[in-house]
Amino acid sequence: MPPSTKKIRIFSFSWRDLAIFCALFGSAVLLCILLHMASSSEGFAYSIFILTVLLISRFTTGYLFGTLAAVLSVVGTNYIFTYPYWAVNFTLSGYPLTFLTMLVVSLVTCTMTTKIKRQEDLRIEAAREKMRANLLRSVSHDIRTPLTSIIGSTSAMIENPDLPEEDRLLLLTDVRDDAQWLIRVVENLLSITRMGDTTTRLVKNPEPAEEILGAVTAKFRKRYPDVRIRVSVPEDLLFVPMDAVLISQVLSNLLENAVVHGGGHTTEIRLSVRREGPEAVFAVEDNGDGIEHKVLPHLFDGTLAAAAGDMENGGKRNMGLGLSVCQAIIHAHSGSIEAHNLMEGAEFVFRLPLEQEEEKA
């Protein structure tokens, strides 16, 4: 870690940490005042402020507020809650030891908290790298197969200029379908690149869920005019904190997945959003053939390209990449995604928190 970055982590400031500091320290002062009014004892103040220093050091980032709490606790206890009251007395017995104790508590707790957060960052980065590796394996398969098909179809038309019009139209249709699939792969890759950019943060703004569903549905109907799609939204306008582009990508992937992997029997899709407590729940249901039980555990891990079931369709319409991207996007929004079979067809459900999270320092 570069020195400048380390300095920022140690002495970082955020309004969230300031609010935590003010709330905890203010509560400690108020409690000490109440106890002092009810009793003439003086020993309780040190215990309360040591606990306060511990809590502030634990729940704030870096060393700034923990150290500040230690210094103010010692000075405040001396000035307000130790005789002579409302006067600083540096000759009190044990004063240096009290200051040293609170400072050590602050530094040790801050150090442990920083290490824990660093380990969590490393764990998240390792999971992200694993996801990227799985995506690269899936992408190499997804891109190679349709390109080979495009080359084969165009070569057949070039080498056989006397092909019947019906055969030529069939080859051109295959080329168009393969090109559209490649566009979808590129869109997924752009989404992953956008999330993996460490120089920017995922920006979530409150977006009306109804408008997102409407835009995605309009785009889907242009590509699949023969598939009916029904949209269900709550009566009240539902605003969900999200990156609208990425969530639209998730919904587009799930809708296309319902058509492509419905065994050719998907004639209707139900797209809905509803509120359940502190979450917004999005659901995509279809009336296709459902999901094979052996595939269900591997839907979101990016390994479906190697599954035997995917090879039945020439490997061209592998859903591993799209669903891996969906999971990555939903997790980046602090949400969850799952899939299960229905009596007829399958359902994909993802949940997004309705409360905007505090930015971490």
UniProtKB/TrEMBL annotation:
Segments traversing the membrane: 18-38, 44-61, 92-113
Entry annotated with the keyword Thylakoid: no
Subcellular location: Membrane
Positions of the Histidine kinase domain: 138-356
One Pfam assignment: DUF4118
Broad enzyme group: transferase
Bilayer topology annotation: Multi-pass membrane protein
Keyword Phosphoprotein: yes
The protein, known as: histidine kinase
